[in-house]
Amino acid sequence: MLNECKLKPSKFHIKMEWLEFLYFLVATVILIPGVECSEINLTFKLGSITGISETVEFNGGMKNVTRFLGIPYAKPPTGEKRFQRPEPYGDYSLPYNATFFRPHCMQSETANPSVKYFKMSEDCLHLNVFIPGNILPTEKKYAVMIFLHGGAFFYSGAEAFSGDQLSAFNEVVLVTVNYRLNTFGFLSNGTIASGNMGLWDQKLAINWVHENIAEFAGDPGNVTLFGNSAGAASVLYQTLNPTNKGLFQRIITQSGNVLAQWAQQYNPKEMFAEFVSEVKCNTQQYDDILKCLQSKTAEELVTTRFSPVVDGDFITEDPSVTFSKVSVDSSSSLSLLTEVDFLSGVQSKEGATTVDRLAESFKAFGVDIANGVSRNIFENQFLSSMLLQMYGGVVPRALVQSVIQQYIDWSRPEDTKMIRDNMIDFWSDVAFFVPAINTIKKHQALGKPGKTSYFYVFDHKPPFDRTPLWLEGAKHAMELPYVFGMPDSLKIAAGFPPNFPLAIPPFDLTLSSNIMKMWTNFAKTGNPNSPVQIDAGVPQWPQYDIDSQTYLEFSSNTTSVKNHFAASKVEFWTNLVPLLEKCETCVDQNCTENQKTSLAHSISKNISLNFIYLLFIELMLTHVRIFV
After folding, report:
1. Residues 199-212: pLDDT tens digits?
2. Whole-angstrom distance, CA of residue 525 vs CA of residue 381
């Protein structure tokens, strides 16, 4: 039943990762709050809920979308339920108002200043459903896409990712999910089955979709799980859990991977002890510690330190061990990966997420990164610091020298700007490119007959990106605005008034249209090329295979098919480095004590692998707030 209503101005408290994206926006598609809309009521097995239907715009076109927002899928994880696995919410005893977003999960305003545009609450386990059209069809069932937001596992939220354009203009049901973050989602004492509450939240939301999405015009047998950055790593963590079999049929990972060191915490027991001491809960017995933690206010417990951990339950073993296996049986963690279609990709300059923080460190020592970086700083400060962080303070000399050989252009060994670019490439390779390529290779090698593999590289620098002119290509998460159709909600994340007029150039709107078609085509069929035709001039996207390693590159002014992305670097880090790690001659372990007032210490402090993802956050917050 439809009832006419007039929406109040939306509280699009958008904070996400597009902040930067929006900071530089010179234009965007505008949704005007207060337009006429319709309420739509739905009664299903859990109860009765009320959503809204509204007309939205993209690139001059108008379509209808229906939203059911802030639907609880779990009981509030508060009080004695804090640090416990989520429990299904159950029935809605009264008609539920699903016409507005609910708060983000608790997160640090210091690490993420844009959170001021949102409400936060520990009671945050809600999801949002976007459906094409202004009625719920009784016969037609749409392909379903479930989006897991990024944010380093400790910030962001579903509200920033409006599904209006992606759903309405591409005929898919889109679900966006809040899950617990930082301390609340990933605190672990290092024992079996401890931690990973945020992953359990995601899993419960995925199961809610499986059980209920048919009532929202979605096909529970045609579900794609996708995410960006930490959300992409989450997608793979869910895929490596065999108990999720049957809950989704396809996955998309954008700039995130479980094989990246930033996607896992390696010393949970030590981090737990340090944290409980800080909040004055360091008693002898765990039960007493838990009661103490549960008695604290939520604000007292927010941190930026915790992420998924190998708990022997949700994550049964280190993903690097999982992906080293060459065969799969039905109980293997890789078994579900072999049964899904897989689309994955990266940005061409992922490592540029560190530029701002590096520039600050260099500036303190009289170095302007815009003019490049000397070879001495690159070799003896940056690389030595990074490798010491990666290998725990003991690095074989052969490995150090081999990395230097790999990241110096020997035709121009003293070219400071080239060295600066290679510094960025180093982080792109180890944190994004190598994990992504090795994962798509594993899927292509072990995937069951008929399962598809696709890879892309996003190389287009958006016109609204305010990174330095010398930085070419796309940095972390820059494809996200294009995937979601440049939703108006992103402006508010950047601090613009709701009606502030911004205009996206025609090329970028066309690119967004094609990317939305490809992503939703893949969700519908496992093939990004059909059923909806892509614009003329855009080549067919070929499947990835180990021999040709074919991928699609989205560049400024063109989209083209290429081969062997980052092949030499993948070979180096995958096959040579493990051999060099076994060498016995090591860098002096005491060297770090001598670096405490040096540039190397300044940089390693900013880029330490325990906190490296904070750089991404800050990058997102200052450059692409909505993206992680």
Report:
1. 999 999 999 999 99
2. 49
pLDDT of 611 reads: 36
Q: With 0.85 as the threshold, say if the pTM is over it.
A: yes
What gap in Å lies between CA 376 and CA 354, rounded to an integer? 19
**Which two tokens mark 265?**
């915490």
CB 197 within 8 A of CB 311: no
**What is the C-alpha separation between 256 and 267, in angstroms, rounded?**
21
Q: What's the Cα-to-Cα distance from 530 to each of 146, 339, 523, 540, rounded to whole Å?
A: 20, 21, 10, 10
Other beta carbons less than 10 A from residue 411's beta carbon: 7
CB contact at 8 A, 275 and 248: no
**Has residue 336 been placed in a domain?**
yes
Q: How much is the pLDDT for 491? A: 58
Angle of helix 230-239 relative to helix 197-212, nearest 10 degrees, comes to 70
**CB-CB contact of 624 with 19 (8 Å):** yes
299 by DSSP, 3-state: which? helix
Two tokens at 319? 């993903």
Strand partners, 56: 63
Residues 6+ apart with CB under 8 A from 275: 183, 187, 303, 305
Instruction: State how far the Cα of 443 lies from the Cα of 127, in Å rounded to an integer.
Output: 29
318: domain CATH number?
3.40.50.1820
Structure tokens at 80: 């004695």
Position 618 confidence tier, pLDDT thresholds 50, 70, 90: very low
The residue segments making up the domain with residue 204 are 2-350+440-542
Per-residue pLDDT of 317-329, as tens digits, reads 999 999 999 889 8
Q: Report the Cα 30 to chain-centroid distance in Å.
A: 25
Domains held by the chain: number: 1
